[in-house]
Amino acid sequence: MTIRVVLVDDQAMVRTGARMVLAAEPDIEVIGEAADGASGVRVITQTRPDVVLLDVRMPGMDGLETARRLAAADLPTRVIVLTTFDEDEYVAAALRAGVSGFLLKVAPPEDLVAAVRTVAAGHGLLDPAVTLRVIESFAAAPAPDSERAGALAQLTDRETDVLALVAAGLSNAEIAARLHLGEATVKTHVSRLLLKLGLRDRVQAVAFAYESGLVTPGR
Questions:
Q1: Predicted confidence (pLDDT) at residue 3 exceeds the cutoff of 60
Q2: Which fold has domain 144-211?
Q3: pTM of the entire predicted model
Q4: Does pLDDT of 143 surpass 80?
């Protein structure tokens, strides 16, 4: 199956570079581009791609507002935010806007390709260099959200343990080793907790774990 991608970035050179990298892959097709958020929403709504590569800083409608509008439109499209090291303040807001992944603009081409495939397959993606910034951004957040904290009661003790380890950045294999479980069992726990909490993927699970107070920075 071909993964259909739309590029939304105000820098033409960035779009051209991403298009060249992705077009070289037999299972990926770039079906549209836009230079700003408003145009991006129109292109994405019309083409309904599998994945969008979305810049944060753009003239007019920025990437955060674009992500919020796409989430409100309830499209099947998944969003990867392209970020740079000096945009830490956008990370938590983008998570809350429902994006599925973060990727640094300086990431090598093979990471871009892998990110598109990962998110298209329904998984969340945090660039390792961004993970610490996610944690730090929640460290400065307000007190835990009471509604989200209450939602944790839906989870079994084991599902709660798994959610905490997902928030710590562990893979299914690492969680399995930590909890002395089979990797397939961990995958089942992850699927069930996402369903119970109404979350789309692991990236949203990280945000939920911090916002609910289940996990606190430094713990």
A1: yes
A2: Arc Repressor Mutant, subunit A (1.10.10)
A3: 0.71
A4: no
